[in-house]
């Protein structure tokens, strides 16, 4: 079976092994993205509109969710990876490597480090020296190594909420989450520096995790905000661990400011964590990197990290992406920015019981579903289901009830905001082909009109 075909809803569902629902909803095509006027069918040479069937590959986003929710699940918009085929340069490089049929231990070649150095310099003006770099088997293991390097067991680690759930699980491997909630003012998230000041002042706080662009709320933090944050952390002797894995996803009119581009004294108090895996859809290759301009920080991390672990195919994929992936990434950024413009306009104008701010960065939209939660009595249902589960079980949240309701009525899966400590919110992954996005939004629209 070819993985590529023109989008036809019925044949898509059929090929996917999922029965089409009788009385299906029409697709939503009325709103076109306007922001940058980029045509999706011409120009870049990359056809991101192509529906690429991932079902049957054991992928978490599709197969994992179909296993969990059954055939009612039609379009998963949860797990943060994308449905697009990778940049051709990546496939070419991997094919070439696979022709050599030995996969023994490998050193990290200078050419790999150079690809990271050059990508960051070329695209963001960030100056990194080779010896500042350290590979890690995915970003979170690198972050955990840094937490271990800078914190005694049991220390508090400050992070902002709503926040990426992987931070929760990583911090809990020996440390305690200290929450610095973001403030939502008229639907826009901002940092609460008064609260942060109090949290950082505690004796058992040594590290702060920054997420820029921010998963899940989608902010690209500006230079003034980052500087204020950095000065506060420096004043309290708290090291900034900057997770910038979403940095290549910046929507039209927005800017990503690398932490390593701030003033020198702030940069010296930081470690940055990045990866080609999010940008180029290589998450299962398990290849990420970190760097710091502070050599002492890097040697402390190397002393506790799993530094010997490198994945040969992961490195080759990342290097090919960073050396030859500029055009693909440029085209993808336009496409995803248009997806975000389209989705936020459609949700706000045409879907009842939910709303959405257009994200500045990431390919994630953060939806306000408070009206839906109210409408379906999700608070009461969640409380009853939690009580029925018994005291040792995890709480059922209203957002989980909304998640289930959406799957049952529309076939679309969003992630419950409670997973990110975001009450009344859900996260929608926009890293998918536009025809499928239109289909998903049309389905949600139909379900919400009946709610
Ligand atoms: C902010 C952030 N950091 C880290 C990760 C995970 O990265 P990795 O799979 O390389 O550990 C994700 C994945 O969604 C993420 O959104």
Structure description:
The protein is of the alpha/beta class and 451 residues long. The chain has two domains: 207 residues, Aspartate Aminotransferase, domain 1; 224 residues, Aspartate Aminotransferase, domain 2, CATH 3.40.640.10. It contains 17 helices and 17 strands. The strands form five sheets. The protein has a seven-stranded mixed beta sheet, with helices on both faces. A four-stranded antiparallel beta sheet has the order 13-14-17-16. Strands 1-2 form a two-stranded antiparallel ribbon. The two termini are 38 Å apart. The chain binds pyridoxal-5'-phosphate (PLP). Pyridoxal-5'-phosphate binds next to helix 5.
Task: Sum this structure up briefly.
This protein is an alpha/beta fold and 451 residues long. The protein has helices at 9-15, 60-69, 88-98, 110-124, 139-150, 165-171, 193-200, 223-235, 264-267, 276-280, 295-304, 312-324, 326-350, 370-375, 378-389, 398-410, 434-450, and strands at 4-5, 51-52, 75-76, 133-136, 156-161, 176-181, 183-185, 188-190, 205-211, 239-243, 270-274, 288-291, 355-356, 364-368, 412-413, 415-416, 425-429.
List the helices and strands and how they pair.
Layout lengths: L3 E2 L3 H7 L35 E2 L7 H10 L5 E2 L11 H11 L11 H15 L8 E4 L2 H12 L5 E6 L3 H7 L4 E6 L1 E3 L2 E3 L2 H8 L4 E7 L11 H13 L3 E5 L20 H4 L2 E5 L1 H5 L7 E4 L3 H10 L7 H13 L1 H25 L4 E2 L7 E5 L1 H6 L2 H12 L8 H13 L1 E2 L1 E2 L8 E5 L4 H17 L1
Parallel strand pairs: 3-15, 5-6, 5-9, 9-10, 10-11
Antiparallel strand pairs: 1-2, 4-12, 7-8, 11-12, 13-14, 14-17, 16-17
The chain binds pyridoxal-5'-phosphate.
């Amino acid at each position: 079976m070819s993985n590529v075909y023109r989008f036809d809803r019925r044949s898509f569902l059929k090929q996917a092994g999922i029965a089409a629902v009788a009385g299906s909803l029409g697709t939503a095509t009325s709103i076109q993205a306007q922001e940058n006027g980029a045509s999706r069918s011409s120009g870049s040479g990359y056809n991101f509109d192509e529906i690429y069937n991932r079902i049957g590959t054991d992928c978490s986003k599709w197969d994992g969710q179909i296993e969990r929710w059954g055939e009612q699940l039609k379009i998963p918009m949860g797990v943060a990876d994308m449905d697009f085929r990778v940049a051709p340069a990546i496939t070419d490089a991997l094919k070439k490597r696979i022709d050599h049929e030995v996969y023994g231990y490998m050193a990290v070649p200078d050419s790999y480090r150079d690809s990271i150095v050059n990508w960051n310099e070329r695209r963001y003006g960030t100056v990194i020296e080779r010896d500042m770099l350290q590979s890690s088997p995915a970003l979170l293991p690198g972050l955990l190594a840094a937490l271990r390097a800078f914190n005694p067991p049991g220390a508090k680690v400050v992070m902002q909420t709503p926040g990426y759930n992987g931070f929760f699980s990583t911090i809990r491997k020996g440390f305690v989450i200290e929450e610095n909630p973001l403030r939502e003012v008229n639907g826009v998230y901002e940092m609460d520096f008064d609260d942060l000041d109090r949290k950082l002042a505690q004796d058992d706080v040594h590290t702060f995790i920054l997420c820029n662009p921010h998963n899940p709320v989608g902010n690209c933090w500006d230079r003034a905000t980052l500087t204020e944050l950095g000065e506060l952390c420096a004043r309290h002797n708290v090291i900034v661990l900057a997770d910038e894995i979403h940095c290549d996803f910046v929507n039209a009119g927005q800017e990503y400011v690398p932490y390593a581009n701030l003033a020198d004294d702030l940069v010296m108090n930081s470690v940055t964590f990045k990866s080609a895996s999010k940008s180029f859809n290589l998450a299962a290759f398990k290849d990420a990197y970190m760097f710091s301009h502070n050599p002492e920080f890097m040697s402390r991390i190397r002393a506790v990290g799993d530094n010997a672990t490198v994945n040969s195919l992961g490195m080759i994929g990342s290097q090919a992406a960073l050396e030859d992936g500029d055009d693909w990434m440029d085209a993808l950024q336009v496409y995803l920015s248009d997806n975000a413009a389209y989705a936020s306009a459609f949700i706000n104008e045409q879907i009842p019981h939910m709303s959405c701010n257009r994200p500045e960065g990431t390919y994630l939209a953060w939806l306000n579903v408070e009206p839906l939660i109210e409408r379906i009595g999700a608070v009461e249902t969640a409380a009853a289901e939690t009580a029925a589960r018994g005291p040792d079980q995890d709480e059922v949240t209203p957002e989980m009830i909304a998640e289930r309701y959406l799957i049952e009525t529309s076939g679309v899966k969003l992630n419950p905001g409670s997973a990110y400590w975001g009450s009344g919110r859900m996260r929608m992954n926009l890293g998918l082909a536009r025809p499928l996005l239109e289909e998903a939004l049309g389905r949600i629209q139909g379900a919400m009109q009946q709610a």
